[in-house]
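It is worth pausing here to work through a concrete case rather than discussing structure prediction in the abstract. The textbook approach is simple: state the sequence, then state the predicted structure, then interpret. We follow exactly that order.
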Amino acid sequence: MTVLGLVLDANKLGRICRRFGVQAVFHEAIYRHVSTIDMNPAAGVWNNVFGTLRAIGTAFKYGLEAFVLTSADKAVRPTNVMSCYKRLVKLVLQAKSMQEIPLGLYAI
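Step two, the predicted structure:
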């Protein structure tokens, strides 16, 4: 199974959370190769933004204690497509953190 297949499959994420008693998720669904993202921005949106939405949704659904978004360091002033995705994902995390649901949401 590819990472892309896992992060976009909420059912598989849920099964993993139940089976292994997951308490926290450290999430970095950000493609690492800027040139790949520049050539295929739609794949970046699909994996980086929607994959993160599904992962956060799974964390809420299964009552995890924490969801930590890593690699958000260059998301303040995006200079390329990949940084734009990081910024979008960070904004998604901030919006979700405003919901009154007992889940620690962090960006590091």
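Step three, interpretation. Residues 31 and 44 are 7 Å apart (CA to CA). The beta strands are 24-27, 66-69, 104-107.
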